[in-house]
Design goal:
Length: 241
């Protein structure tokens, strides 16, 4: 079971008025927004460490703009490195960029990204810019296919370096590729989803990818249950692994 967060808290995003659609309802809950659990005390950023980490991440990103470690780099429009706070207490890891992400150079900006943003801002009630979002591979696979093993092998060290720099308190993996890469495991996502795992000493919560939820709305309830465990972690509450 993960420990309690001890960093200085920031004020959560104010709750929506009852009756307004919330991300909690979008991921399966039928209660009003006012009755939903949310992160009450999200750790505040350390300005000094934030600037230091920003420089480290920028230095790591710079050579990747000309990266040809796998053939995905030959056809990209933009590198999709990562976005958010360089000292984020919460990090989301997805699979790879889609067409919209490739066009804009930012992860999770398409329909799946809109759902992720709602999960963060309306479900967890924290700001998207206060978390960090990245993918296993930084260039778009053609036709949005699943990254191949050699592409993951070539690019995953960049993700691991991002995690090493940011040192999040919790990682949420989105989808099977992210879970298998971060956890270095071949276990199926349906077996491990919703159970606490570890990346080194960092607690990891594997869950479904937002794109999967768009295709399978019934799975939204499962994701909300997973997010409630993340909420319990940050609120310092008991939560069974």
């Amino acid at each position: 079971m993960p420990g309690k967060s001890k960093s200085k808290p920031v004020q959560p995003t104010p709750p929506e008025k009852p009756g307004v659609s919330s991300a909690a309802s979008k991921v399966g809950s039928q209660s009003t927004a006012a009755a939903q659990p949310f992160i009450r005390a999200y750790p505040a950023a350390d300005p000094g460490r934030s600037e230091e980490n920003r420089k480290k991440l920028a230095a790591l990103e710079k050579p990747l703009h000309s990266c040809q470690a796998c053939w995905l780099g030959e056809n990209r429009t933009n590198l999709v490195y990562g976005v958010g706070s360089p000292v984020a207490a919460l990090m989301f890891v997805g699979e790879g960029p889609g067409a919209e992400e490739d066009r804009k150079g930012e992860p999770f900006v398409g329909r799946a990204g809109q759902l992720l943003t709602e999960m963060i801002t309306k479900g967890l009630r924290i700001r998207r810019e206060d978390v960090y979002i990245a993918n296993v591979v930084k260039c778009r696979p053609p036709e949005n296919r699943t990254p191949l093993d050699d592409e993951i092998e070539a690019c995953s060290p960049n993700l691991f370096k991002q995690i090493e720099i940011i040192q999040p308190q919790v990682i949420v993996t989105l989808g099977a590729v992210a879970a298998k890469t971060v956890l270095q495991s071949r276990e199926g996502l349906t077996r491990i989803r919703g159970t606490w795992k570890k990346f080194g000493s960092i607690p990891v919560m594997p869950t479904y990818h937002p794109a999967y939820l768009l295709r399978n709305p019934n799975a939204k309830r499962d994701v909300w249950e997973d997010l409630k465990k993340v909420i319990a972690f940050f609120n310092g509450e008991e939560e069974q692994s």
